Amino acid sequence: MFQLTVKLPHPPNSIQIMVSSQEQVQDIRQSVIDLPGTFQYSCFHLEHNGTRINDYVELTDVPGIGPDSELVLVEDPYNEKEARIHFLRTRELIGAASNRVETAGGILGGMTLFDGIDTVDEKNRHPMADYDFNAPASLDKFLPPTPKSAAPKCVKGIALSAWNPPPYHLRQKGHLLYLQVTTLEGESVHITSHVSGFYVNNSSSQRFDPSPKTKPKIQQAHSLLNLLGLISPSFDKEFTALQEYNSQKDPLITFGPINSIPAYPWLVPGTNTPYQTHQADNARPQEAYLIAGTESVDSLRDFNEEFQSTRELPRETVQERVFRERLLSKLFADYTEAAVRGAVLITRGEIAALNPTEGRDAQIYVYNNIFFSHGADGVGTFTTEGGDEAARVATGKDVMGVKAVNSLDIPGLQTPGTVVVDYCGRRLVAQSIVPGIFRQREDGANQIDYGGVEGKDVVATKEDFVPIFDQMSKSMRVKKHSVWDKEGKKHDLVASVETKGLIGTDGRKYVLDLYRITPLDVDFLEKHWKGTEDEEGYPHKMAVLRQELVESFWKLKMREYVQKEVERRRKQKEQEDKEAEEAAKEGREVEKKESAEQDRIDISGFEFALNPDVWSGQVPQTDEEKAQMEADEKDVRAACAYLTERVIPGLVEELKEGDVGSPMDGHSLTRLMHKRGINVRYLGTIATLAAEHGSKLASVKTLAVQEMVSRAAKHILNNLLRGLPAPLIAYAVAHFLNCLLGFVHNPEPKVAKDEALWKLYHDADFTFEELTVAGLQEQIKKQVARRFRYQLEENWESQIKHLQMLREVALKLGLQLVIRDYQFGAPQPDAAKVNGDAIKANGESSSKKKKKKGGSGGAQSPVAVGPSHTFTPEDLLNVVPIVKDSSSKSQLAEEALEAGRISIMQDQKELGQELLLESLSLHEQIYGVLHPEVARVYNTLSMLYYQLDEKAAAVELARKAVIVSERTVGIDSTETILNYLNLGLFEHANGDTRAALAYIKHAFTFWRIIYGDGHPDSVTTMNNTAVMLQALKHYTDSRHWFEASLAVCENIFGKQSPNAATLSFQLAQALALDNDSKAAVNRMRDAYNIFLAELGADDRNTKEAENWLEQLTQNAVTIAKQAKDLQARKSRILKMAPRVTMAAKPQPQVGQGKVEGGRVPESTTSAQTGGMDERSIDELMRYIEGGHGQEGGKKKRTQKGNPRRRGGRA
């Protein structure tokens, strides 16, 4: 790193920038553009020693550059594109740019609530004061924070003027654009954008004269920002105030996500609230032109060429790898954005099909050089395997396959950019166009060079593909095997027959159709797939094993191989020792092998892979071929058995024992299953196994059933929405939700028709009108039985959690609903007002009603008379696309992170921290700061710093993790909630317990929204809160949180469980601190009796409880006898110092294992007791008796406790 000076043409005339020799010149250029003192520059180049420097070279390639060198910034002439960019940038800098209504966007994308949390809360004793456990969680928590003051305005308006574009003769003179500005003083000024810069002209709204205005003087500048300062006397003052206003917020809150899709909340404020104001802005409709130009040429890109040429960039040095992976990350983000926009436009009918005469599902489209097709069986490819259902699954599996190949990053093997978009019931697949894929080959040969052609009838085996396909298959544990074409001819393939290789006209080797890189789940299909005609069997034959399971099974086989090798060597050593003993007796010498060689096991001889084409219609011809196929099938069946007999029961057992954090919602449950290689079709099995363990796994069963019902509902609603015109979608969704969740409020919901729309779209599919409550419930029951092999219980519909089910359905379909009090129960006398309530301010509810009331954000429901409905069409404000992309993780950043973790585990702290910081830097460089992967690395590093006792650094990183996860994965996602809980813990450890409680309260409220009350891991959160309240000496409030924690624990594990005993122990101490001696004795007696019965008299916990029980009993007697004599009471206190279970212990994140490295290994849900505090009974008694001073000159310990940390293995 060294310092450069950049000379500027205007004040401040020069700036200093710290740079790295490996940086490119364009990085320095970007730094100049972003710095507050120089952001008026956008069209310039840099010179060194009078020579222009290329923006795309590294600094090391610039002759003579080094520390303290000077670069000169030279302003360039504008062209139209540069003028448009400069104008857009200026609008954003001065705060004149209004919110864009993106084609494929949504409401409040990338919002954060972090800056709205009151960590001081001066009105209350502490943030948890008067917390009501019985009040329902407030949906007002979804409301964005209201700014304390409005942002300063620099101009009243700025836009392109009506005189655009310049006529031909003025274009010749260098005129580019014409602008119109209304200053704060009310003056309307017309400006010419010229190749030389910007100047005020003589035009008005009625008269066109773009020549420079000379009176009172010519006003011109190279930068529009500088010109505005010359025109408006108050501009500079207001612009400075705006910069100060913006600097009050964390940059992570104000910057927009660049390399990731922002998270869109499923609940948003209504349109009649101050949170959604639609302001007039003349420039808003001009932005499409300003961004892309007249011909939209700027937005047209050859994505395929960009992908492949970027992959072919050199990757020898670390800097080359960083540059390459950063480009790939940006390219994937740009491609995904373009693909989503195209999919939305196609769904809305705004892009014409290339084959309009075909059926809708067979139609194909091209938009922005991206090829689109439907995720349905439009041409009959999957007729025998499940039709549309199979085609839909195949597209999802293909994206996963492309992602897997991308992560392997094999040189010479190319994949097309692939994205799947689900929007309004339709699935569209977007692929970059492989050169030559649509062109018929001259010799009439097949376009496919390797793999199955036209199904499996013809098989191509071009040898050029064998080496790279073999490399891919070995990494994916795919076995080299034989397949047979329709004539019975044998072909040896190194990949599945469904995986295709194609040589494009650019000469590159592409791999396509990666939906069958793992074998079929043979055992499952044998039991449940009866063909396409069976309406009760599994809906398709595309049930494949997950890649994670295949990898796990391969590791199991490798362990078995190593164990056999160890056993063989042990026997061999025994034989050698025996021979040596005999030789010694005979006086002979035996040569001994080196022990290092003995200990090293060579696994190069281990080979294990699975045949992906087992049970897929292959017909071996000879006995030898049949025997080989049977052996392959046996291996696949062993993998299937491993899944059902070991992996699934193993996960349930770990959840029961508390070895992994319990999932909070459907997404965290399915993510946990996927990490173990368990397919979602086994949700029914998970629910059944969880039910066998009773209340211990009641939460897992509840979530599994909820997830199955919501997925079934998703499939049914998708079928109803598919092909429905956009204006009718709100009516269909509202009626569907009324049938699913509003049937108690109104058992016979009716569609709220708009007769004008019904007449206009008379040929639309109005099947949704026929939907009834009973009909929908029966459909869901059948879908759950068919897809998950699970029979829903009788009255299942009355057992579901309405708010949580609404959230799951909304997230799966991309629905954005208005925040308001949805009436799921029986109608109230004032039910007619259900749609007209106003939104209240952020805060806790103290009422006992079902949900906090909020504004509907829309007009009154069209239903005028009769029973009200829970949902109305006005409740659906928007639908956002659900996206699956194929971008893979950065291998370089992951390697650095793993190296840092290993160094920390090996007690090399300095090296470990250096590597971890390097990994963080790589993550930020490659992904950009606002990205889910960066949030995860912030979270990981914050936990590691917490363990290393770097508390301030842990807090700073945890704050960043919270903001980035809120903006990229959602304000109510499991990850965000866990990040908030971690932040609370770190703030407490760092001394700011009030802020810690504020963050925990925020997270706890969202936890109650996404799961409800009584989650097993919420015991941890309640305990942490109680300990923190004790640290603030709020003993009564602390006691209430311990009591709530114990109630949840007893409900889940039973009143006689060791978990309940541990919490009773803690509660007894809390009661003693709250001067309730009698209750403290009773609770300690409960704890002692349970420990005695469950753990025995000799257990440490039993003995400790006995000591405490004796002391508390004596103290209670003393208080009763000598209430007036404080000194007499003190004389009875025994000086004992056993360890006290007042501290809480760490807890893993959802789905992560036991925490290690000096941390307590058990979790809340285990049957063992917690981590121990070292506070003595003597000190606690001083609290009880009110003696908070120091005794005997001994310094009293500050009691902060040690709340449990949330986070997985580092």
Topology:
Blueprint: E1 2-7, E2 14-19, H1 25-34, E3 44-48, E4 51-52, E5 70-75, H2 80-93, E6 157-160, H3 168-171, E7 175-182, E8 188-194, E9 197-200, E10 220-221, H4 224-231, H5 235-247, H6 251-254, E11 267-268, H7 287-292, H8 303-311, H9 318-347, E12 364-367, E13 370-374, H10 388-408, E14 413-414, E15 418-423, E16 426-432, E17 450-453, E18 458-461, H11 466-475, E19 481-484, E20 490-493, E21 500-503, E22 509-512, H12 522-528, H13 547-586, H14 595-599, H15 623-657, H16 666-675, H17 683-691, H18 698-721, H19 726-741, H20 755-760, H21 773-788, H22 796-799, H23 802-813, E23 815-818, E24 876-879, E25 882-885, H24 891-905, H25 909-927, H26 932-947, H27 951-969, H28 974-989, H29 993-1010, H30 1018-1031, H31 1035-1053, H32 1058-1073, H33 1077-1095, H34 1100-1121, H35 1126-1131, H36 1177-1184
Parallel strand pairs: 1-5, 11-23, 14-22
Antiparallel strand pairs: 1-2, 3-4, 3-5, 6-7, 7-8, 8-9, 9-10, 12-13, 13-16, 15-16, 15-25, 17-18, 19-20, 21-22, 23-24
GO molecular function, one term: mRNA binding
Keywords: Cytoplasm, RNA-binding, TPR repeat
InterPro entries: CLU-central (IPR033646), CLU_dom (IPR025697), CLU_N (IPR028275), CLU_prot (IPR027523), GSKIP_dom_sf (IPR023231), TPR-like_helical_dom_sf (IPR011990)
